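*** Protein under study ***
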Amino acid sequence: MILIALLVLAFIVFAVGFLYFWGINPGDMTIFLTNDLSYTLPAAIMLICVLLIGLLIGNGVHFLSAFLYSFRNWKGGRKIKKAEEVGSIYRSGVGRLLSGDLKKAQALLKKALDRDPQRVDIHLALASVALQEGHAEEGIGLLQKARKLDPKGIEVLFKLATTYEECGQSEKALEIYKELLDGDANNRKAMRAIRDIQIDLGEWQEALTLQKKIIKTSKSGAKTDTEKVMLQQLRYEIARSGLENGRQDQAIEECRDLIKRDAKFTPARVTLGDAYRQAGRDSDAAKVYQDGYKALKKSVFLGRLEDLYIHAEDPAALLSFYRSQMQGDSEDLLLKLYLGRLCLRLEMVDEAMQHLTDLETSGIDFTKLHLLLAEGQRRRNNIEEAVVEYQKALSIDSHLRLGFVCDTCGARFTEWKSRCPSCKSWDSLILPERKQIQDATLIKEPKMIPHGSRED
């Protein structure tokens, strides 16, 4: 009732206002729609028409806006619901992938992709499935599709590049990594990947240039220290390759600088000595090798010294160095080994056996030591002792046992065991040479054919 009363009151007010406006504006108004088309109406009627048209237009716009808003909400709701469904299927597929159920994972991920072919993450997951199944080409194809959907996606590009690397397509991987650097010039992960490929390809100078940039863009810390070590190693490789190409002076200068920076870097000392030797400076080479052994106690320097002095037909100088070192450190067992071997080569059998026996009594036991001891005993004409040492070297006992090896873990045993003590596998101990014997074919001697009985 109140609403009706309000409507009636509004109508009365409107009617009074309309009559009042018409009373004070008695004239007519002419509206021209075109040059030939016009309408003449009282001013009050014209005003009412304008108001009505305005109300119609306003309400029409309002209703259209409300309709579009409702339509968008309806469409957006469907899109959200679809995205939720696809996301649920995708997560289930990834879960299967992580658990190792590749077939179920592939089925779920393909179902998700069918519902939403624009999802990059689904392409990446399917590519992982294909790669784990060993289908490299299929995996690369899926990654290429993901790349088309997201041309600048860092995850997609890295996955594609690493896949190319794993498939041995280094050049294509390089192109992808360089594309990543075009988008982010300081991407250290991409730079390291490019550097590693360049190292594999032997492009040492390019790798060194990139390594300097990596260090420049890195913050201080343990990772940066590791990168600086890599820088020194790349500098060394350039020096070594230069020496291989006859650039002795460059190699000498570079290696000397590397030793100043890191006195414990063995390759630089060895290559410096090699460069001196290649340049005909044998005395400098000998000093480098000697200083290297004194500082680092590594056998490579003794091997280089032996090669140098034996080639120069001056074993006395090498023997002098060994003996002087033994006076300074009589417990240097590595030096004892090399000195014993040298004495054996020089037919100084008694001194050789003294040093080699010292090694054996120290608890050292390896094949080449027993071979050296056997050779010393043989030269002393102690045949039985020599045979014992040869048996030790060949791991042969008095019963000529052949021994067993675990087919699972490779552990070796003298006696057969039902279960490997190392890896706990049952029934896995076999003869070490069993496969070789099984694969071999016995070659029988051809039967003799009596003269004259051979058929043409």
